[in-house]
């Protein structure tokens, strides 16, 4: 039996392999999952992805399973509770951005029918399929992530710089950035 070839970034820990094999790059069409990925990528800024994945269950508990309505209605006591929660990344700006962005997600649902409708309009509903052979070829941002970042900022989102947007786009399958040698690359193309 031949060895499974994966994107090398996931090889350090089982939790990373599991995320790579089962989630990263799968085109998402669920607003709650979009919000989760959106928030986790914002919290990851300046930290390793492994750190965020290890805290993922804590984030789910702290933010009511990323329930948009609940998070959008968080008040000062919720904010203070989150600031005291050692299980998550306790960053004032990122916590405030999460609450703000939950409100903005609801706005987008109202305006576009769903956040999913909004975000996929940028690619006409289809993933952008890249063909990177090495990790060095994978950009930290693109013209498309610049455009999405600018649009999200226009709608009042926070912590949505182009690099964070691109990481989110990769996670949510808006772009397929699995390396061409990775078994998931073709699997995703064939499936979606």
Question: Could you walk me through the main structural features you see in this protein, from its secondary elements to its overall organization?
Answer:
This protein has helices at 14-22, 31-44, 49-62, 68-72, 76-84, 92-112, 115-120, 143-154, 162-171, 183-191; strands spanning 128-129, 175-176. By secondary structure, it is an all-alpha fold. The protein has one domain (8-191): Hypothetical protein, domain 2 (Endonuclease III, domain 1), CATH 1.10.340.30. It has a two-stranded parallel ribbon with strand order 1-2. Helix 2 (31-44) packs across helix 3 (49-62). The mean pLDDT is 96.
Q: Could you name the CATH class? A: Mainly Alpha
- How many domain modules? 1
Count up the helices.
10
Query: How many β-strand runs?
Result: 2
Order of adjacent strands in the largest pleated sheet: 1-2
Mean pLDDT: 96
For the sheet with most strands, the description reads:
2 strands, parallel
Overall helicity: 55-70%
Low-confidence stretches: none
- CATH superfamily, by name, is Hypothetical protein, domain 2
Assign the CATH topology: Endonuclease III, domain 1
**Run of helices and strands:** HHHHHHHEHHEH
The end-to-end span amounts to: 27 Å
Multimer state: single chain
- Compute the gyration radius: what is it? 17 Å
Global geometry: globular
Derived from helix and strand composition plus strand pairing, the structural class reads mainly alpha
Approximately what portion of the residues adopt beta-strand conformation? Answer: under 5%
Which architecture does the CATH hierarchy give at level 2? Orthogonal Bundle
């Amino acid at each position: 039996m031949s060895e499974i070839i994966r994107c090398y970034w996931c090889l350090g820990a089982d939790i990373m392999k599991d995320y790579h094999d089962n989630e990263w790059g799968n085109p998402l069409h669920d607003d709650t999952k979009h919000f989760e990925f959106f928030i986790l990528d914002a919290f990851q800024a300046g930290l390793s992805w492994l750190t965020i994945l290890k805290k993922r269950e804590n984030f789910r508990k702290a933010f009511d399973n990323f329930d948009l309505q609940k998070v959008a209605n968080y008040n000062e006591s919720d904010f203070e509770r989150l600031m005291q929660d050692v299980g998550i990344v306790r960053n004032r700006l990122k916590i405030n951005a999460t609450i703000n962005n939950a409100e903005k997600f609801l706005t987008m649902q109202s305006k576009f029918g769903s956040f999913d409708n909004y975000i996929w309009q940028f690619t006409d509903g289809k993933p952008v399929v890249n063909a990177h052979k090495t990790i060095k070829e994978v950009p930290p941002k693109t013209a498309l992530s610049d455009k999405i970042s600018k649009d999200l900022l226009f709608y009042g989102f926070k912590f949505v710089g182009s690099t964070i947007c691109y990481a989110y786009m990769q996670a949510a399958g808006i772009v397929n950035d699995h390396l061409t040698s990775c078994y998931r690359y073709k699997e995703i193309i064939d499936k979606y």
